[in-house]
Amino acid sequence: MISFKELKQNLKKEYSSLPTRKVALLGDVATQFLAVSLKGMGYERNYNIDLFEAEFNQVERQVMDPTSDLHEFEADYTVVFQSTHKLLEKYSHTSPLDQIGLADERLDFIRMMCNTVKGRIIYYNYPEIEDTVFGSYANKVESSFVFQLRKLNYELMKIAQENANFFICDIAGLQNKFGRNVGFNSHIYISTEMVLSLDILPYVASRTLDIICALEGKFKKCLILDLDNTTWGGIVGDDGWENIQVGHGLGIGKAFTEFQQWVKNLKNRGIIIAVCSKNDEDKARAPFEKNPEMVLKIEDIAVFVANWNNKADNIRFIQSILNIGFDSMVFLDDNPFERNIVRENVPEVTVPELPEDPGEYLEYLYSLNLFETASYSNADAERTAQYQVESKRVSLMQSFTNEADFLKSLNMVSEVKGFDSFNTVRVAQLSQRSNQFNLRTVRYTEAEIEALENNDQYVNFSFTLADKFGDHGLICVIILKKLDASTLFVDTWFMSCRVLKRGMEDFTLSTIVNYAKEHGFQRIIGEYLPTAKNNMVADHFPKLGFSTIEGSEPLQFELEVGDHADREFYIENK
Amino acid sequence: MEQTEILAKVQDIFRDVLDNEDIVLTPQTTADDVEDWDSLSHIQLIVAIEKAFKIKFTSKEILSWSNVSEMTESIAGKL
User: Could you read off the pLDDT of B17-50 as tens digits, one per residue?
Assistant: First the structure.
């Protein structure tokens, strides 16, 4: 971890050109060093932290007074640090009869704060001070300080669940990791009223910025694993799948078992797991498929790359399948040489400096907090399956030299139908979200889609697409307006980018033309309304054989139905 | 360790912590003589000196020094 001294030096650097985030800092102890650390860590994460530091011990006043400097400042993030020290002081000033209400009183204030403070609140929870007034018996005494403190930390989590803009920065967790003797320095406290040591400050600032970055959309999505001596002990190519070190019992195997359990928990949370190993592929796969001690199974791995190419290229390949930023990837490898190759060639990828001893992997990884997140839903957990399907498709495509043969081999099937009660929600959702492949970017709500179902001036089509690897569901929508008895206008044409380059556009046009022919329409008019994001389809209609209507503004295109001949496509109508 | 040796080591720590290679300490130097040596950087210096010499000051000592020689004497007394 970077030192406090280096964070302080960052303040002298040029960071005014970085994106600015307004952060307010409220503390009931002195916060000068914390302020320096937050600004310095902001620089490390490429933010210019515009910091408002409230005067010492003004948390309540700043929050409750609507005309205070805090409210004036309009922070994006308000960091609130109410210390355990001050809480203990308050407890000591409270009459013994009222001490039982200490946690509730503080919680009331925090709930009120959630309603008053605009922007997001990052609240530091309470590292424990065990005052030993009751000893361990404090756990039986509700009015003890230890009992109140633990209750407070527990109830804070409930407030966080109930308030979308309230985030806890788990500095109690940091103290669990590093110990109170590291986290608190009595010299600093005695001479400055600050309760965080110089050694812990960079970690506290880092955990705070982790939350801000996650909320700003910068977070890790994928963990790429080396295999030999990273995921298991030993070399599978030399030792064989049955002799690698993994599994409980005496020895180093349990370190790898527990490492794999951690990876599995990440996968279950929605982190994509990929493998990048220098091995023959069949040998690398064997432990996943045959060794009963392996916690990770082949179905946990979204993309499996085992070959003798260099790892930087393999990571680029993994990126091309997942289509996520390199800066959202973490690569773990025990070999310093491989780590450096990846750092030099793909510098955006995070490459932790794993300790030499596998027994220390986990505690080291815990300390990095690599996978901070700003949201969680059950859908996150299903991601692996989707990427596995995409990975199979890409590896099949590589085995064909000719695109048509590849498309044929996919056995694609599309179900075409109008709007109905089953697909209204998805049609409306796609209409809100499609930006790139969207010709006119007209947004429809569910109610408007329902209205279209019953309006005979409009013809609607929805398309699904499935292939031998999996089902994409509903991926394309067409809304045609009958301009007159012979002319159809393409009011809406949007498609999910997941199904680009499958011939879906030709299949869709064929569907429209067939409808026109069957119902006596002779002309189809298309229109392109440019937006910041839909440049991809600027030439959509000309590519499909439409001719440009000279002088039209916005640009319009027409197709004589009689002149149209289908281009070849390999999608069956279900 | 001789007082002069201690002074040289302390001077290195000052230069490092205050990020200023021009700092020269004498036994008579006080906080007023060194740019950026304020109550906040003082605590950074204390923590760095404790680590470098592997010693622990008492809180009373930290608050009592009036110049560099009193500081180096405290250090010498603990080595």
Answer: 999 999 999 999 998 999 889 888 999 999 999 9
- In this structure, what token pair is assigned to residue A563? 């002149």
> Smallest CA–CA separation between A2 and chain B, in Å?
14
> Which ranges constitute the DSSP H helices of A117-144?
none
The Cα–Cα gap between A521 and A182 comes to 79
pLDDT in tens, A152-178: 999 999 999 999 899 999 999 999 999
B19 in reach of chain A (CB within 8 A)? yes
CA distances from A35 to A75, A182, B19 (A): 15, 20, 19
Domains and CATH numbers, chain A: 4-215 (3.40.50.1110), 222-388 (3.40.50.1000), 410-573 (3.40.630.30)
Chain B residues with CB-CB distance to A32 below 8 A: 40
A450, burial (CB in 10 Å: exposed 0-12, middle 13-18, buried 19+)? middle
Closest residue of B to A190, CA-based?
B59
Q: Interface pTM (ipTM) of the complex?
A: 0.88
Task: Name the most confidently modeled range: A48-62, A79-93, A523-537.
Answer: A79-93
Contacts of A140 by beta carbon, 8 Å cutoff, 6+ apart: none
Residues in chain A closer than 8 A to B17 (CB atoms): 5
The CATH class of the B3-78 domain is: mainly alpha
* Contact partners, residue A359, CB within 8 Å, separation at least 6: A252, A255
Domain residue extents for chain B: 3-78
A366-415 confidence digits (pLDDT tens):
999 999 998 887 666 667 777 778 778 887 777 777 788 888 888 999 99
**β-pair partners for A329:** A222
